[in-house]
């Protein structure tokens, strides 16, 4: 199976998804499973789609929560900076790392991305 076949299979499995969403899911599936032959079975593909959906949802929720924390941190006067603010920044970095790993694959580290 190649990427085009995977995308066509996703289009049949999830016709309610926009083409861009089908491509995004296909990309994420391919990043997590370089051997696309594992998606020959509709049941396996459906299970993997559900897992990807859960990962996207969890990462999006974490990103939104951290973005709210960062917005409130930005409104804080620099002289009021506390250790809790530092932990907010650390959480933000971790969430960004999760997003990078989701889209670039788990073998990519933040250092590799920064070097590019």
The quaternary state of the protein chains shown equals single chain
Sequence of secondary-structure elements: HHHHH
Radius of gyration: 18 Å
SS-based structural class? mainly alpha
Q: Key features?
A:
single chain, 116 residues, mainly alpha, 5 helices, 74% helix, elongated
What does this structure look like?
The protein has helices at residues 3-13, 19-32, 42-74, 83-104, 110-115. It has 116 residues and is mainly α.
Please sum up the structure shown.
This protein is an all-alpha fold and 116 residues long. Helix content is 74%, strand content 0%.
List the helices and strands and how they pair.
Elements: H1 3-13, H2 19-32, H3 42-74, H4 83-104, H5 110-115
Helix pairs in contact: 1-2, 3-4
């Amino acid at each position: 199976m190649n990427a085009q076949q995977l995308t066509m299979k996703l289009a049949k499995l999830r016709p309610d998804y926009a083409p861009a969403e089908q491509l995004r899911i296909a990309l994420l599936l391919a990043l997590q499973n370089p051997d696309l032959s594992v998606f020959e079975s509709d049941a396996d593909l459906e299970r993997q789609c559900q897992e990807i959906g859960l990962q996207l949802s969890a990462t999006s929720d974490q990103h939104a929560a951290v973005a709210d924390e960062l917005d409130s941190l930005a409104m804080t006067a620099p002289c009021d900076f506390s250790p809790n603010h530092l932990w907010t920044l650390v959480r933000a970095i971790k969430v960004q790392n999760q997003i990078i790993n989701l889209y670039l694959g788990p073998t990519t580290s933040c250092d590799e991305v920064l070097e590019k």
